[in-house]
Each structure stands twice: as structure tokens, then as C-alpha cells.
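During the practical work, I worked with a single protein chain and the C-alpha cells that describe its fold, as given directly below.
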Amino acid sequence: MRKSKAKRLSEQADYQRAYRMQQKALRKPSRDDVARVALHLMIGEALKPNHDGELDEWCAALVSRLADQGFDRDAAHRRVDELIERYADGWAFQRKPHLDLPQGGLMRSQGHRFPPLLR
């Protein structure tokens, strides 16, 4: 006999909640966490001296891909420009404070340094 839709949705919600708790306990970054760090890295590197033109090329490629996904090209360009302006004005990377808590008696390492962008 097939489960009711409400029962399936309830079980799926329970599974998803447990999965998220497990991922948090494992301190496994989500896709969005990785994307956020990558964005911070890309913009930060492109804003450094002697990287003229990199930011423009990267911005054009990003806006183009967002437009290909169905987003409004002008709105995407404005959003990307807003983010770049925030970083250029010194907006700090939004870290997750709960990850600073001890785990197994060890503190997470501090002072990560990113390698230069690969071409």
C-alpha cells in the first residue's frame, strides 16, 4: 500500500532535518558555503593591484551565465556590482561563528591563506 502524500512529506522533512544536523556535526561545508568562499576569494584577488581587467572579465562571464539561467541581465549586473562594491569598501567575509567552537578538544585552525588564482 502506498504512503499518503502527507506521510511521505513528513518523512522527507525528518530525513532532511537529520541530514542537515549530521552535516553540521561533521562540519562539512554546503555547496553554498563553498560558493560563498569562492566568491570572496575571486573578488578579493581581482581587487588587488596589478589585476586590471580581471574583475571586468569575471563580472561579464558571471552575468552572462546568470542570464543564461534566466535571470535578468541588468538585474544580475547590478547585483554583482553591489557585491563588488561591498568588498571594495572593506566588507568582511561573513564567517560562521559556530564553527569556532571546540570540537573534540581542538579549535579550528585560524589564518587560512588562499593561493593565487589559477589560470
About this structure: The chain has four helices and no strands. Residues 29-90 form one domain. Helices lie at 5-26, 31-46, 54-68, 73-88. Residues 5-26 form the longest helix (22 residues).
